[in-house]
Structures are given as structure tokens and as C-alpha cells.
Amino acid sequence: MIVDQKLCIGCGRCRVYCPVRAIRLENRKAVIDQDLCTECANCQRANICPKQALVKPALEWPRQVRSQMSDVTTVYRGVNGRGTEEMKTNDVTGRFKKGFAGIAVELGRPQVSTTMRDLEKIAMVVAAHGAEFEECNPITSYIVDKATGKVNPEILDERVISGIIEVTVPIERLRENVEAIIAAADQLDTVFSLDVVCVNNEDGSNDARTILDEAGIWYRPNAKNNVGLGHLDSRREKDVSYTA
Ligand code: SF4
Ligand code: SF4
Hints:
This protein is α+β, with helices and mostly antiparallel strands and 244 residues long. The chain has helices at residues 42-45, 64-70, 85-88, 90-93, 116-127, 138-142, 174-183, 207-215, 236-240, and strands at residues 2-3, 23-26, 29-32, 54-55, 75-76, 79-80, 100-108, 114-115, 132-133, 143-145, 150-151, 159-160, 162-170, 192-197.
């Protein structure tokens, strides 16, 4: 996003709409830090500028990645923005089967943001521990080598509000993956949350919980019952052909 300096009157109304605090006032004009800006378009979409001075230019590669990952109105390769729908609709898709666990690592947040470089670090950690990347996920589409988790080097400096790595691991490799992700936290210049999904056994026990308990890893149990929205996912056939 840029500010048309000829139109801007420096009222400052746009600043609070920026989730990464990229807008500042300088000499009574709004200025956008182009490194911080994630091209989310929140400021423009809020429609609060009295002079229509916020302008979204045509984005070129690799800056387009910022918009693809941060603008909530973007639908990139059939997946909306941050996209964890595979994990959230597992009762419909059955993507995570018995004997496997799903892991999602959610990097960045509004006010904090992250970069594709940080996302690559986690992708490489889980790839080294036998994880399989979820195809129906925007981050996966930027990974050029799924065996190593390497992301397209052209986009590593692109900043996004957040990004989620989704993988599946054999249940016996869950502990090593979770421990490796936690150990990698010090390498990151952002925050992340870690989600694990695993279907219950017939008796109500859950293998992931048993493993995390044995490892002494704290977690907050969460259950999900899909009451129907997942069944409306008419994109399913398209998602199957979703490739990097
Ligand atoms: S496009 Fe988004 S990140 Fe960039 S200045 Fe506007 S609100 Fe901030
Ligand atoms: S809202 Fe518009 S006029 Fe006011 S500071 Fe922002 S860009 Fe300038």
C-alpha cells in the first residue's frame, strides 16, 4: 500500500486500521513502511480516508505473496488466506487417520507478523522429522522441496501477518516433531502456536494426549464437532488437484 502524498491531509485516521503498525505520520503526511506493510489492504478497505489517499498498486512478484497471505479477501489457489480448513474439518475430510496426527504451526499474529523465512525454518524442522505437508494449504504451495521444507528463495523476505504450516506425521513420530518445533522457537523472530489433532480411540482415549502427557508437554484439550459447514465445501474436488 502507498499513500498519495498529494492527497493526504495527515489526519491520521488510517493508522489504527493497520494490524502491523506500518503507518506513521511524518511532516503531517501518512507514510507506510514498505518492509512492515503486509499488503493486507485493511487500511484501504476500512474506507475511512477522507481523501482516498490510500492506493494499492499492482503488486509484482514476489511482493504479491504478502497480499496472498495477508489480505482476507484473497483466495489463493482455492484456499482462503491463512487456511487451516483441513485440520478444522477433519470429521468431514478424514484427512488425519488412525495411526497419524496432524500438526499445525501458526506463526505470526496481528501486531507481530512474520516472514516466509521464519515459516521456512519450521517447515525444514518438520520435514527433517518425516512430516508430510498438507497439499491444501497456501504455505505448502511455496515449498519447492518437500523433502527438506525449503521455500522458494525468492520470497523469503516477504512479510505476512501470519502463516500456518500443516503437516501429517505417523503417531509414533509426534513427540519428536513437537519437541523439535519447540526447540526451534529460539530461531524465530515471531510468536507461534502449536496445534495437534488426533482422532479419539473407541474408548475415548486419545493417542496424541498419551504421548504429550508422557513427554510432559502442556496442552489445552479442545474438541470439535462439525455441525454441517464442512459438508458444504464444494471445493473438495478442486482441492484434490491442488499442487505446488
Ligand atoms: S496494507 Fe495492511 S499492512 Fe499495509 S499499511 Fe495498510 S493496513 Fe498496514
Ligand atoms: S486517512 Fe488518508 S488523509 Fe488521513 S492520514 Fe491516512 S492517508 Fe492521509
